[in-house]
Specification:
This protein has helices at 6-9, 21-29, 53-71, 102-112, 147-155, 183-187, 191-214; strands at 14-16, 34-36, 81-91, 94-96, 116-126, 131-142, 176-180. It is α/β, with parallel strands linked by helices. Strands 1, 2, 3, 4, 5, 6 and 7 form a seven-stranded mixed beta sheet that branches. Its cofactor is a divalent metal cation.
Length: 218
């Protein structure tokens, strides 16, 4: 999908405002050259202040991007694209983010066991000329998990840095019966939506630049 703007992207300074290895892996699969600069935003927004989990995730992602944008504003090599994301898991109106400890991970998995939950990822792409915000949701059905299975999985430590306390790309994938939606969204970076919005941003700018050249503004 990004082939029409591939040449342009190769010359852009792209910053991922996240330390998530899953998000980095998705971007690498696209063949993008990018650097990682973790946001220092405290992620202390109150979900109750937002109309939906998606809005909460988008605003958190936006704050991450703003933090990084401010920190690199005076760099000689200006940032061309800053990407931020935030992922939350929701069940019955309750949000499940990264568990604070193993007890929280056990509690989370026990509540998700045998139920269908929703994974929301909010994303922001910021360029010097525009900022786009969007979200994606995926329905995930978790199998019924015995206490032994939950305890054993938590002991692997895999759940500890993941929203919802599971990693679908790893051992956590064995806990999932089915999904409805973008698999990559559950990893924390909805691949199709990201590419669609990035293409729109850069293809639109490319067309504007070509028009300016045609009418002699350059």
């Amino acid at each position: 999908m990004l082939e029409p703007i591939r040449h342009s992207l190769d010359f852009q300074r792209i910053i991922l405002a996240s330390t998530s290895p899953r998000r980095s892996e998705v971007l690498r699969h696209l063949g993008l050259h990018f650097e990682i600069l973790p946001s220092l935003f405290e992620e202390n927004l109150n979900p109750k202040d937002f109309a939906s989990p998606a809005d909460y995730a988008v605003e958190t992602a936006y704050r991450k991007v703003l933090d990084v944008a401010e920190r690199v504003a005076n760099d000689v090599n200006k940032a061309d694209i800053i990407v931020g994301a935030d992922t939350v898991v929701c069940l019955d109106g309750k949000l499940y983010e990264k568990p604070k400890d193993t007890a929280a991970a056990v509690k989370c998995l026990s509540e998700l066991s045998g139920r269908q939950h929703t994974v929301y990822t909010g994303m922001v792409i910021k360029t010097p000329n525009a900022t786009v915000k969007f979200s994606e949701k995926t329905l995930v059905t978790m199998a019924y998990l015995s206490d032994d299975v939950i305890q054993g999985y938590v002991r692997t430590r895999e759940p500890m840095d993941k929203a919802g306390a599971y990693g679908i790309q790893g051992l956590g994938g064995t806990l999932i019966e089915k999904i409805d939606g973008d698999f990559y969204n559950v990893l924390g970076l909805p691949l199709h939506s990201f590419c669609k919005h990035l293409l729109w941003l850069y293809d639109d700018q490319r067309k504007k630049d070509e028009l300016k050249r045609d009418i002699g503004e350059y």
